[in-house]
Design goal:
Immunoglobulin-like, mainly beta, Jelly Rolls, single chain, 9% helix
Length: 707
């Protein structure tokens, strides 16, 4: 910081939200940003637009954001750190959710090298480190009222989740007697429910979802089913043709509540993963917290979300980073001191690299050497790139034995600095060689001679100079608003801030023309009691994925009640599909958008006889992919993430004493190109103007101007 013209030093600490964390999200359907970030808090907020949207808060050893003057040196040792924080979520899957983790929201994910130097992936269940501190558990429940006229021999009951409790009436039974018998059956220690308790008031039965622990039904006071119970469905049945009936024949339970705020206490020195394997937290490359869209009961409706983190406290040892201090320097890939050898080196490519250039070779044994002189003891780093298909490299300094570093990381594309070692003052030569399969690219960015320092110092103020910021790029979008402003301040920029809100991601989206894949299941005839009805759900090409859902036909079941039973079953937490029953027909819908939903297979039994099940197609069908399109009519034309990030960025700029101007592009990456939408600029032949941004050039029609 700068006070009265004095350049002040600042320390950089690991895991500090406004200096060391970033956010990523599922693109293009989701949008997320970090804001309101400080040393002890942050907010992640944005919008989910489909059921499997997610965002992650990431710590990464290989910082690619700040200027090299205050970009921390890579340090993956978190083993001496303890972290505590408190968290609240809105429209996200809850900490205590029982949903299958289609998105890995329930684990802290860690990528770290084992003792042999091989990178491994570890999943640590976060709920093991969580304690509720606000709000309390309340179980979900529903009340069923019995009506009508009884006759001896009729069967009446309630059923859910494969359990069923039926009473066969005697000639003297009253409605209250039947309700009492069903209640007693549910509560029976010997034959009763594994997860429900019941109480009776007159003809009304209230069922409460308390859950079970290790196969034993929980007591009401101990129940921690919470909001998970709000997905459980119960249906009532009675002998077909009888005059007795349930006032509401089927219900999804309501009223379940879970704690609203949780405290997490994580000691990285004793971390074990879900398989009880010790996690090497002294060799971490990347670590991610994941948040995901809450499961919705029907077709997904766009929703804003918020994760509020407070009282974030990092304690312990080895917390502080080092940076490349005074006297440090780099030799970039185009420097004449770099002596390349081998025939396959590419030309110099422009981009966001150390000197604005980078180059690669994809041939085994191609390499380079650099001879340099340093007047101080220094640490040497090689700037390169991790990729899904990258080779190992071999390197040595002076007369050392060669060492090998593997640049291949599945699913990655990230710049990094490879630690080479510490060397004394004097002249040194480094040799680096492609040491992997030909065809895999080794990228060379720079060689850095770092003189480590514990502090970052602001550069001298430049009152009339600034750097433009751009929310379309990760240097703003991926980092907290406060971090972007801090970068400007630390670099000495004091001129008016020119902020480009962008052309690619600030707006709301919808998927134009999209249709979910679906199929129709018809239940026909009269089911035979004590026989089974079956539906099989699977994934095309993966027979091991097939799940058979068996329904025991009850004495009170009809084709309609069986259709309803399957609807309730599929909607209690199946993440691939959802269902709607209309009479004796069940409509099954994919939760995945577009053609991916057609990979879900459906089969049924029995397919003949007095009662049969007919499936309209062996897999879900009818999907239309659709296209993500700018929503010109959204109540909020600027999406939640952009609003929150921008508000905080302007606030912190004002606190620094800077004026700010913001600009929007007349281009839209997801702009609607149709003539009906009326916003596309067109060439003489009528084709829309699609630019290399990539974006649609909008016109100056009233629709565009109003937007």
């Amino acid at each position: 910081m700068t006070t009265r013209g004095i350049l002040m030093a600042e320390y950089l600490d690991k895991l500090r939200p406004d200096r060391d964390l970033q956010v990523y999200f599922e693109r293009p359907s989701a949008i997320a940003a970090m804001s309101s970030a400080g040393e002890h808090s942050f907010v992640a907020s944005g919008t989910w637009r489909q059921q499997f949207d997610w965002c992650v808060i990431e710590w990464n050893r290989d910082n690619v954001w700040e200027h090299p003057l205050f970009r921390n040196l890579p340090d993956g040792d978190l083993s001496g750190i303890q972290l505590t924080y408190e968290e609240e979520r809105e429209n996200c899957i809850g900490v205590d959710s029982s949903l299958f983790p289609t998105v890995d929201w329930h684990n802290l994910r860690v990528w770290a090298d084992d003792a042999s130097g091989q990178e491994r992936f570890y999943q640590i269940p976060l709920v093991d480190y969580a304690t509720p501190i606000e709000g309390s558990y309340a179980p979900a429940q529903a009340t069923f009222v019995l009506n009508g006229v009884l006759a001896g021999g009729e069967a009446v009951g309630l059923s859910w989740m494969g359990e069923h409790y039926t009473h066969v009436c005697s000639a003297s039974d009253q409605l209250e007697d039947v309700a009492e018998a069903i209640t007693a059956s549910i509560n029976s220690p010997a034959i009763g429910s594994k997860n429900m308790i019941a109480s009776r008031t007159g003809r009304a039965i209230t069922v409460v979802y308390v859950g079970e622990v290790n196969g034993v039904r929980s007591e009401l006071v101990d129940s921690k089913t919470g909001t998970n119970g709000n997905r459980v469905g119960v249906y009532g049945h009675a002998t077909p043709g009888s005059a007795v009936f349930w006032e509401v024949p089927a219900q999804t339970l309501t009223g379940g509540a879970s704690p609203s705020k949780w405290r997490f206490s994580i000691d990285f020195s004793t971390m074990v993963d879900r398989n009880s394997i010790v996690v090497p937290m002294n060799r971490v490359r990347k670590m991610r917290w994941t948040y995901a869209a809450e499961l919705q009961p029907g077709e997904y409706v766009r929703s804003d979300f918020t994760v509020t983190v407070t009282n974030w406290v990092v304690s312990g040892t080895n917390i502080r980073y080092r940076v490349a201090g005074p006297g440090s320097r780099r030799i970039d890939c185009r420097d004449p001191r770099v002596a390349y050898y081998g025939p396959n080196w590419s030309s110099f490519l422009r981009g966001n690299y150390s000197g604005g250039l980078i180059r690669w070779t994809d041939r085994y044994s191609d390499g380079f050497s650099i001879t340099y002189r340093s007047e101080q003891t220094h640490e040497l780093f090689l700037g390169s790139r991790l990729l899904d298909q990258a080779p190992a490299i071999a390197f040595r300094v002076d007369g050392e034995s060669a060492r090998v570093f593997d640049l291949r990381r599945p699913g990655e594309d990230r710049l990094l600095r490879i630690p080479i070692g510490q060397y004394p003052p004097g002249e040194h030569t480094i040799f680096v060689t492609h040491n992997g399969p030909s065809g895999w690219r080794f990228w060379f960015d720079f060689l850095e001679m770092a003189i480590p320092s514990d502090t970052v110092r602001d550069l001298p103020p430049m009152p009339q100079l600034t750097a433009a910021t751009d929310w379309d790029t990760d240097h703003s979008l991926a980092v907290p608003a406060e971090r972007t402003a801090w970068m400007l301040h630390t670099l000495g920029f004091r001129g008016r801030v020119n902020h480009y809100v962008g052309a690619l991601i600030f707006y709301e989206l919808y998927k134009k023309g999209h249709v979910y894949a679906s199929c129709q299941v018809d239940f026909l005839g009269v089911p035979t009691p004590s026989q089974y009805t079956e539906l099989e759900i699977g994934t095309a090409g993966d027979p091991d994925s097939t799940l058979t859902i068996r329904h025991l036909n009850l004495f009170g079941d009809t084709a309609t009640t069986i259709a309803k039973a399957y609807e309730l079953e599929f909607n209690r937490g199946y993440t691939a599909i959802r269902a709607e029953a209309v009479g004796s027909t069940l409509f099954i819908y994919s939760r995945q958008m577009g053609m991916a939903g057609e990979m879900t297979t459906v089969a049924a039994a029995p397919t003949s006889g007095a009662f049969e099940v007919r499936v309209s197609h062996p897999h879900l069908t009818g999907a239309v992919e659709g296209a993500w399109t700018t929503d010109l009519h959204s109540p909020s034309l600027i999406n939640r993430a952009c609003r929150d990030w921008s508000r905080e960025f302007y606030r912190i700029c004002k606190a620094y004493g800077w004026d700010v101007t913001a600009a929007f592009s007349t281009e839209l990456e997801h702009g609607d190109t149709s003539i009906e939408a009326g916003i596309a600029q067109r060439y003489a032949d009528g084709a829309p103007c699609l630019l290399t941004t990539p974006a649609l050039q909008t016109n100056f029609s009233p629709v565009s101007r109003d937007y």
